[in-house]
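idk why but the lab printer keeps eating my pages so im just putting this in chat instead. protein + NQM:
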Amino acid sequence: MSAPDPVRDGIPCLLMRGGTSKGAYFLADDLPADPAERDELLLRVMGSPDPRQIDGIGGAHPLTSKVAVVAPSTAPGFDIDYLFLQVGVDTATVGDAQTCGNLLAGIGPFAVERGLVAAAGALTSVRIRLLNTGDAATAVFATADGLPDYAGDAAIDGVPGTASAISLEVGGGDDKPLLPTGNLIDEIDGHTVTLIDNGMPVVLLRGDEFGIDGGEEPAQLEADAELVARVERIRLAAGPLLGLGDVTHQTVPKMILLSPPRTGGAVSTRAFIPARVHTAIGVLMAASVAAAVRIPGTVAHEIAGPSGADAGADAGDTVIEHPSGSFPSRVRVTRDADGTWRATSFSLRTARKLFDGRVFPRPRL
Ligand code: NQM
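predcted complex ->
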């Protein structure tokens, strides 16, 4: 018998909606161990580079061109290791500089589907190590008859209908600072910004400095070439300040324009991720905005209405408005004796298994 050939034999793959994103979930053992070989294969799986990803399973948008690589954890105290990979749509790039809180919602169910974790009655809890960031997550989700139960009555904005609730708690797995520059605000290119990383490094900008009121459609912002160039200039300058180095070819930091709330939340957001504008907001992006809302002196705290900013460090949800509704993000913000801010986030997501089978990568071009 000849050696397995992915093009001929396919690779086991589960397609899952995780929150407001969609991705291909793989067991690490089913992919090449060498990162360069793995990435080359994933480009062929997703059909990149091609704006339509027509010859692959990518969805022609960064939010649907995502991959999760999952393995039993090698670290004490964790069940699962999760590596997130962002596959470029029209670029031949595979990036591991960020994690994804939306695909994170599908990791626990996938681990049960693949037998890495046993379902534990009606609710199963999985400890997940986020390999991209060093953070730690606990996912709690419904299981029935030994399998994930995807059906339920939880609704999240940006996804039609309802599904079973998945609760995600994410916190610092290492000593990464919440405010990487140590400052509540910094000046970049004449703009007052807050640089914050509560699971996702983001640059918070005042929308009014860019002529934005928080009611814009993503496509409208993407079409504004001057705005896009200004935001990108600030992003490139923010990269080194956040300790990320040269971010020219990276998908972080995310750039979030903040405006006063329009529908009763804390702030309105429009997030450049960074080439496209998010149709909603990422889980950990929302957690980063929510943490800033809770810290007096940040750009977000200043813009937030009283319901967001004055609720105290340990209060309930901070409601982050976004283009397709709002995201309630619960953050616990604390301050050490030396003044260092720390945060943990709690989010509610849903996920759904869409397809389980073998994916057939296109042959090398
Ligand atoms: O911030 C978008 C998403 C994300 C990331 C992105 C995310 C998060 O909505 O936690 O989930 O990668 O820009 O999936």
